[in-house]
Structures are given as structure tokens and as C-alpha cells.
Amino acid sequence: MTEVEPTEVLATFFSDLDVTTVPASTRDHAIDLLLDAFVCGLAADHAEDTAPFSAVADSVGGPGSSSIIGDDRRRSIAGAVLLNGFRITAVTACDVYPPAELHSTPAVVPPALAIAERDGASGQDLLQAVIAGVETAVRLASAFDRAEYRARGWHSPGVIAPFGGAAAVASLLKLDASRSRDALAIAASQAAGTWVQRGTPTVKFHQARAALAGLMGGLLAAEGFTGSARVMTGAEGGMFVAYARGTPSAGLDQLGDTWLLEQVSLRLWPGSARLQPVIAAAAEVIRTSGLAWGDIERAEVRVAPSVAKAQAWAAEPTSTFEALASIQYSVAATLRYGAAAPARFTESGYTDPELRTFMTDRIVVVGDEAIEAQGARVTVTAVGGSRHEAVVDVPPGDPRRPATRAELEHKAHLFADDRIGRAEVDELITRVRAIEDEPDLGGILGLLRGEGA
After folding, report:
1. Do 218 and 288 belong to one domain?
2. What pTM does this model have?
3. What is d(CA 438, CA 35) in angstroms, rounded to the nearest whole number?
């Protein structure tokens, strides 16, 4: 094992970080990630699991002065961080770092937002914290032996994302390199979550718990609480020993020159990352063909065999969580409505008799060796026999096909208009786009709470 300790290097890096020196492309992508996290949080009430999670967050955290995305009630700082972490991931549409299947914003944005609100930080301070947090998380994720890590069953949002939350809090609290390293070390002791929870809402709890872990790491370090300087490489339970082997230098390569944050994907629609090309292809068929719902006779969906197998469990969804993982339902809803909005994944959607009949009787999913894991082919046969097809090799939002501002703003309206209003969503977009000019977060937080709805 090399003597390089990633937390030592990363702590020095982000404690010295000056957002004004970060490349414009990196700042812009971080702003996209922040806006995306906000609109995902605003859509969270469409997920059935949000209400019970909110009740527990209330019970555990109690009342306070911290804001909740999409809720005008205030909570304690711990309750707010826990609940916002869940809300951002609730409709399965938050960010993804593909090499590690890592969702970082549910763990980074909530503790950063809570500390920024508590301390009256500026928008620029918040942006710097988000950059520090996401870059730290993806850097550490990239250092692991991915095959071994996945074979052991670890779920990276629960295991790696706490480091990102801790880095964001340390940035806002302006901790020096030593205490920032302690924040990361304390986060390491809270790393948890395995893929055995796949298929249950508990995989989303991993993100919420990671947000709270990051908050605790930063706050404890600020009070002088210390942690091991060798949490990644130490022989007695370092992350590269206890979780999987790794190459520390790989996560630090070109640090500060190349920003891995820019390789984080954005999902334009609710649903598993594997479903994004499927939904994109179905939407493209409707857009280019002009077919109405009543014109469609049947549909064939071709995906990589691994994708067909991985999502087969949700073929006939009985909950919002399952609908968000279902190829059949996602395609049926997209063909019927032209867009996969969060509101279409509620009980009224997946229990709709017409949709259920269509997805069980008229949609065929085929595992095709010629299709890559990030691709899909959707062929729709119309009444009368005409065929309409769309092929997606890389879904929009992937680093290889970055989402445009227009696409991200369309997502914001699709996800949040019914929660806070169209004009308010436009204002939120404008203010977040110019977040570096915000002297404080009061205006943005008011929009997020829905006070003008």
C-alpha cells in the first residue's frame, strides 16, 4: 500500500479552495448540480416513502429553524439535513457518478445548505462548499477497486458520500487542513450501506444518513473532536482494507487541474439511471412521430441483457418505488404523456388499468447483446402497422452528452411547477444560476420552502 493518505491531501486541497479560481466549466456544472438537487427535493412528495420518512425525521430531530426543501415547516438542523437528504433522492432523479454509481448531492447539499442558512453564508460560500464536497466524494470513489467494491456489496452513496458531506461542512466552517481531515475521518466511521437493500426504499435512506454523517463529521471536527489520520490506508480497518482494495494515488491524480465533478451525470427524468436511455428513446419516438396514445398498438424495448435482468423485478410495479425502476411502466407512461414527470409515478399512475394493460400486454422488453448498457432502442408500432423507432446510445445528462440548460430548465418545470408555481420556478432558476451574486440564501430558501406557492 502506498504511503499516500487521500484524506490528508484532500483536506488540504479543499481547505485552501477558492471558488473564484475554479474553472468556469466546473462552477457551471456545480451550479447545475445544485439546481438539480433543489428541483428533485421539490418533487419529493410524489414519492410514497417521503411521508413516513418525514414523520421519523420530525420525531428524531424535532422543531427548529432549518429549512426543508418543498416544505414550509422548519426543523432542527439534524432533522432538516436528514429529511432534505431523503427528499433529494426520493423520486430517483438525482445525480450519478457513473464509474461508482455514486449519488453525491443528497449527501452534500443538505448539510451545506443547513450550515449556510444557520451562519448566514453567501451563495458563493455555498457553491464553494458544494464543489469541495462533490469533488471529494468522486475522488475517493474513483480510488477504489470498483470490481471488488461492488462484489462485496457496498453501496457507494452510503459508504463514500459521507466524505462529501463532511468536506462541504468543513468548507463552510472554514476549518483548517488538520480539522478538515478530522471531519473526513469522523465521516469514515459512519460509512454504511450495502446493495442487499436494493429493491427497497432503504437504499435511499443510505443517502439521507450520509448527509447526517457529513454534518456530524464537520461539526464534531469544528469542536476539536479528532479522528484517525489513516482512515483510508490504515492496516487496521482503513477503507482500502475493510471495504475494498484501492489505489490512493488514482483518486488524487491531477487534483485541482482536472475536476472529476464535471463527470457527474444529471438525470432528466425520474427513474433508475439504467432507465434514462429508455425514457429518452420513448420520448423521442413521441416527439418525432406525432403519435397520440390511441394510435399506439405496441412497443418493443431493446436494452443490454444486464439491464433487462437487473430491472426485471419491477416489471409489474405495486409502488412508486417499483414504478421508478420499471422499464415497462416508464415506457408506457412516457408514450402516454410524452414526458416522464414525477406526478406520473404515483399510485394513480401505476394502478391505472389502461396503463397496466398496455405495459403487460403490449410492451416487450428484449435483452440485446448489440445494445450497450447506457443505450436503448424503442420501436413503436402504430395501429395500421407503421413503425417508429428511436435509438439512444448515450442519454442526455451523461458526461458524454451533457444536458443543455434548456433541458435542465425543462426538468425544473416538470418537477417543481406543481409544487411552487411556474413563475417561482423561473425565479429559482435565475437566482441559482447567479448564486455567486447572492449575499445570503434568504431569497432562494423562501422559494424552496414554497412560501409563494
Report:
1. no
2. 0.96
3. 14
